[in-house]
Amino acid sequence: MAPYAVSGTSVQIAALSTGAASAPVVLAAAATAPGVFTIDGSGSGQAAAVNQDGTRNGTAAPAAGGSVLSLYATGEGQTSPAGVDGQVAARPLPQPLAKVTASLGGMNSEVLYAGAAPGLIAGVMQVNLVVPGGLSGAVPVVLTVGGVASQGGVTVMLTGH
């Protein structure tokens, strides 16, 4: 996660280990860069998602149409109130300044909430969305923040009811 103070089109970073710094590397910076968390941490496959009933979304517990699904992501950009690096999210929960939209299986999904995940560190965004009906199996999920789409290859399990 990038610190909230990062701005502009590039940033210089270096790794620090046992008091020695690596050579700095210049990386591109962006106002938003959403990335959906996945169960295995690879950035693809089953999303780290929670069904409306509190179960972990997956093959054993797919989400039904009309239910609420919670996804977890990063890269929401600046928030209001302003995010504080390293702080655990507390009320009032920061929400991204940029617009957040979602799609499941290519269908638009209503976003009920997008903002800090209560009890987790600043920079983790929770997105609660309504599952559209008529979809079943492993379907692609895409979050868009400020016009920038999340990575491809992330899925959630749906029942089709």
Characteristics:
161 residues, mainly beta, Immunoglobulin-like, six-stranded mixed sheet, five-stranded antiparallel sheet, 17 strands, 0% helix, globular
Report on this model:
This protein has 161 residues and is mainly beta. It has a single domain (32-159), classed as Sandwich (Immunoglobulin-like). The chain has no helices and 17 strands. It has strands at residues 10-13, 16-17, 20-21, 25-28, 35-36, 45-46, 49-51, 68-74, 79-80, 95-96, 100-104, 107-109, 111-116, 125-130, 136-145, 148-149, 154-159. The strands form five sheets. Strands 6, 11, 12, 15, 16 and 17 form a six-stranded mixed β-sheet that branches. A hairpin with a 2-residue loop joins strand 2 and strand 3. It is globular, with a radius of gyration of 17 Å.
